[in-house]
User: What shape does this take?
Amino acid sequence: MKRVAVLISGRGSNMRSLITAASAPDFPAKIALVISNVVSAEGLRFAAEAGIATKVISHKAYESREEFDHAVSAVLEAAGIEIVCLAGFMRILSDWFAKRWEGRLLNIHPSLLPLFKGTHVHEQALQAGVRVSGCTVHFVVPELDAGPIIAQATVPVESDDTPETLAARVLAEEHKLYPAALKMLAEGTVRLEKDRAVFAL
Ligand code: GRF
Assistant: This one.
């Protein structure tokens, strides 16, 4: 059973889906810790009510990105964390952190990467006129939204979609995809090798 931490900054609906999935007895990972860099993050309450350890580490208390990342990493290590899931964590992590947790650090992004990196993702998709969009779970590497892809899910883009309606359709898929991808990493059916995701059958 792998010990997992989820890093959030806000609503935490993906965190909730991970906690719910991991509460199944046969799930190969346990959500042992939730860290938020924002004290008012909604997701913290759900995690605490689910009996999961929570910790707020405000980036504002640190002079540099690296100092904040070292503090986060120290807390993860002290808690015996083996896998870290970013779930709506709105801080760019340093190269040091990405390297420190290489192969054990996942992110979910609400587009079919490598399309539409960064923020305002659904606006970007609608602007581009794509007819399908979706979400991606990937290993985190130093370059933003660029790590090797573990899993993706697609949704149709409707002609009357707004960023909000498209976001809601994608989010429903995120909630299924992230637990599935975490399960794969925790049970060893996917691993990072050099700069590729390698799948075991
Ligand atoms: C999700 O759309 C996720 O893909 C993106 O930020 C959003 C976070 O939502 N990285 P939530 O906090 O998990 O509800």
